Model the fold of this input.
Amino acid sequence: MQLDTESLRAFAAVLDLGGMTRAAEVLGITQSAVSWKIKRLEEKVGRDLLIREGRKLRPSRDGRELLSYARTIIATHDEAVQRLQGSEATGIVRFGTTEEVSLDQMSLAIARFSRLHPSAKVELLVEVSSRLEEMIDAGRLDVGVLQALPDAVRKSDVVLWEDSLVWVTSPDRPFEADTVPLITFSDGGFYRALAEASLDRAAISHSVAFAGPSIASVVGAVEAGLGVAILPETWVSGELMIWHRAGSLEQLPRSQKIARSSPGEPSEVSAEFLKVMANELSFHSAKAEFAYQSKATLD
Done:
């Protein structure tokens, strides 16, 4: 028996992303092609790998066992292909990212790049989006992951994922009248300018009650009832709620998480790093979005 890598890739993507439609989008093939690859895989092993419950799919007992092998096979295959197809990149990549990209995601991307290019080195900086943009444009960073509104995305940017933005507050503090206490990040942060401009256009009096240096501090301040904030919808949990008064405000734009390179022709090592990072972050963000949507449905 021989199991082809692309069928295993389709099988893993269907389970990771919650269905054939989303898997087809991420893999860049048609839904019928995904279905055909799964069917061919089941024919080869002679067992059902997926259990269909209405519109949902879950792995069978044999499917769960195969999935762990599939992940190892896919990762080994992809690394071998990239090592053989590309030259050995050397040098230093000066890379900046915002705090919102999780440490797990970034660690996986950097670790994968290091395995493919052991002679290369990555220097990592964590900063707010406005500062990262300045450093990239000035050539002090080679590659950066930052936030931008749709009209600020450049043709050369790689869009990794989008976030829906919402106004949130504590369930104990609705702030339905009077001056609005604003919880945000320090000057230069992406959310602060957006929040202040939105409230100004609605002629709602506001003042900054807390400007935190980190995501944890801002979320903690909102949970403590110190004020309202703009945050990605995926961060809304049982300790936060949508701010009802935001219904009278204009709809917030979607936030684009982008990868951007410094001006000019990128070095070989920077181009290789951007490719690996974009693939890793895009796939893991799709998994995270599916997990959030599944949780929201259950809630």
In short: Residues 268-298 form the longest helix (31 residues). The longest strand covers residues 91-97. Residues 284-299 have pLDDT under 50 and may be disordered.
